[in-house]
Amino acid sequence: MGSFVHYSLLAGLAAVAVPVLIHLINMLRHRRVEWAAMEFLLISQRKHRTWIVLKQLLLLLLRMAAVAAVVLIVAQPLVRNQWGNLLGTQQIHHIVLLDDSFSMADHWGDTSAFDQAKAVIQRIGQAAVHQSQPQSFTLLRWSRAGQYGGGLRADFNKEPVDPGFADRLAEKLNSQEARGRPLDPIDVSETAAEPGPALEAIGQLLGQDEGERRVLYLLSDFRARQWEKPEELKERLARLSEDRAEIHLIDCVDVPHANLAIAALEPEEGIRAAGIPWRMEVAVENFGPTTATNVAVRLQEDGRERPPATIAEVPPGGVAKEHFYVNFAESGQHRLAAHLEADAVAADNSRYAVVDLPVEMPVLLVDGGPGFRDARYLDWALAPGGRVRTGVRPRIEDPRFLAGHPLDEFGAVLLANFDRLDRAAVEALERYAAAGGGVAFFLGEQSRSDFVNRELYRDGKGLFPLALGGPADLAPSPLEKNPDMQGEDHFLFRYLGKHRNEHLGAVLVHRYFSVAKDWKPKAASPVETILWLRGGAPLLVERSFGKGRVLAFLSTAAPDTATPAGWNNWAASNETGSFPLIVRELCAYLSRRPAEAAAHVVGEPLVVKLDGPYQPQVRFVPPGGDPAASSAVDAVRGGDGQLAATLPHTERSGFYEVQLTKTTGKPEVRHLAVNVDPAEGDLKALFGPDLAARLSPGVKYDFEQAASFQTDLGEAGGRNLSDLLLYALVVLLMVEQILAWSASYHLVGRATAGASAGTAPGAPSGSLGRVAAEGGAP
Question: Do 719 and 88 contact (CB within 8 A), yes or no?
């Protein structure tokens, strides 16, 4: 049996008649001319006429065959019977790479991009079943290509296609049960899976080329964020193309659709403790082309509904934020969730957060002066007592405490009026800040510039933001209304509002530490001045250190009675009351966010450290609380010596419950929030011409729309004879040229006068007779 890839092109076989028509037209142009001198040649010509006509007939047939071969090469004939086997029929291996990232849930009408993809896969499988040639089938979802913790897991791995394969494929695609066995359903995931790992995984699945014919189908929505600059993808596709894989890129979306996503749900920087109100921030991103107005965000606290937040406008391609206050009376973990109304994609309409609230946030106050005088002023600002609750629990210690006790339990560390710190204390502070802790320095009469520069600043490598000069007196102001200090817009002054400089202007500064004369901030320095004195000298300076923040106030935290005027009157000033407010905001700014509030992304592993007397087995329960879907994991000891239990990969967003058991047998439950990657919600896509501009040259492929994709049964079923016909055409044309040369007339030299009877002097031998025989004029 045989067939053709392009049946419509067979109409070109009518061109086979063209050489015959040309010959007949030339025959009509012939005219007979009587020439007595050549009559004797006609006798010789009649003797050889049969051989001449035979050569001319063969030449005509060769030219007709050449035309037919060209037409057949373009039509691409296929042979699927035993004759095709003799010509080298290959096994067909269908390789389907399915994009199951959550953007494929994009829906319109009664279908979705993922539904379109599954319909194409079903058509490919059905076409393979109906072929007489051996077929095999591989199906790999992007999310299972090894980029997430679950390893490389193909749904079908080079499975032979038999008469029952179409039914097995339909059961898998439609999430049915096969003969009582539950199947792992093929459905869109909540990951932001990329095509690169899936293309790379083909080599692991396929191994060496065993002479099979490989047809690759890549089904995706071709989002711009993945294909806008596809250098790595282009390289991988080009390698497959060079390996003679037939590549089909199948687009599963019709047009881009508008979509909103919750980009963030997280606590604002600030003090968070039980019974203290604090603010959460929710951010909505608009991936559509028009402004979204009056966007309602439904909010939940520990599973209970609370008043929603409304965002007036979200610009196209932009992000808008809204804040709301929360206040939990009890300490411990609390769950917060935000949801949007349904739109093109559902997965990014929800976001989750877990916040672990202490009864109070511990803050360490380290004082090197007599009687902890500066620390007591800070303590009073942070915890004034009475009915005023700040959520802060200060603890006053001397500098020796730093080297001998862990600092991780403290939300912030404030040092005041110290003269020196031993090396172990400095290293403990640096580790604390590098891990995300916040440190603040308040200088005083005992502070020494040489120690700060040598041990804390260390030429910009240490904690301290700048190099110090020495104590200096602030010169009197020539103008009465010229304030001693001013500040820029900063988190510390957020509650002072537009009256910030009025409050700060009431503070009098008499003494401070100047900056070293030879110090200048380096290029791209992380140092920022928050408060400065009259004349421009820095007073409050900030820098980043690792993941943490460090601030340095170049004066005292408390009024100094050892000097006639003191260093400053900020803590003693009752005119504005800004000192306790700023100190509390300072701790809020420095405090680290709890580890539980860190973002976990769908597909990535979850790690729970057992930092106490726990039994080694941990159970993870996914969102929804289905016990059958839970996983028991044994904790192992890591390189840091601490036990940790790891859930290799996550498949859904939401709250994961972690069930622990203490060695005493007492159960404990923790929660972890897992969210989707909101960037996957950007539905901007590249279509045929745009994709071609980025993949060409170098990649040979066919680009097709899923809705109109049709698997050609002939193409998938047998041996394509186009290459063989091309070689035959070359041989045929060579034979035609040789025969044409033999059947034509050539000058073979001049005969001498009278050397050959019947040959006119000066005429080419044998040519005049043939011309006369054909009826041409001599």
Answer: yes
CA 598 to chain centre: 20
pLDDT in tens, 316-351: 999 999 999 999 999 999 999 999 999 999 999 999
CA angle 405/406/410 to nearest 5° reads: 115
Does 448 or 749 have the greater pLDDT score?
A: 448
Beta bridge partners of 550: 439, 543
Tell how strand 548-553 and strand 528-533 pair up.
Answer: unpaired
Model confidence pLDDT, tens digit, residues 87-115: 455 689 999 999 999 999 999 989 999 99
Burial class, 420, CB count within 10 angstroms (exposed 0-12 / middle 13-18 / buried 19+): middle
Whether the CB-CB separation of 64 and 19 falls below 8 Å is answered with yes
Domains in the chain, CATH or no CATH each: 2-82+723-749 (no CATH), 91-253+686-717 (3.40.50.410), 260-357 (2.60.40.10), 361-590 (3.40.50.880), 599-675 (2.60.40.10)
524: left (phi over 0), alpha (psi -120 to 50) or beta: left
Closest CA to 133 of 313, 1, 329, 292: 1
Among 663, 631, 627, residue whose Cα is nearest residue 645: 631
Q: Which helix (H) or strand (E) holds 636?
A: strand 636-637
In the numeric block, the tokens 């005992």 are attached to 446
Number of Cβ within 10 Å of residue 340's Cβ equals: 21
Spatial separation of the C-alpha atoms in residues 104 and 263, rounded to whole Å? 19
Pairing label, strands 667-675, 392-397: unpaired
SS3 content of the chain, % helix, strand, coil (to 5): 30, 30, 40
pLDDT attached to residue 184: 67
Contact 262, 349 (CB under 8 A): yes
Answer with the residue of higher pLDDT: 734 or 659: 659
> Is the CB of residue 558 less than 8 Å from the CB of residue 447?
no
**Number of neighbouring beta carbons within 10 Å of residue 663:** 10
Mean pLDDT of the residues in the chain: 84
- SS3 state at 493: helix
3-state secondary structure 443-474: CCCCCCHHHHHHHHHCCCCCCCCCCEEEEEEC
d(CA 269, CA 510): 32
C-alpha span between 375 and 360 (Å, rounded): 19
Distance CA 527, CA 464 (A): 10
d(CA 587, CA 13): 87
- Work out the number of other CB atoms within 10 angstroms of the CB of residue 408: 10
Neighbours of 21 (CB within 10 A): 9
The partner residues of 298 in beta bridges, in order of sequence, read 339
Helices of type H across 76-194: 82-86, 113-129, 165-173
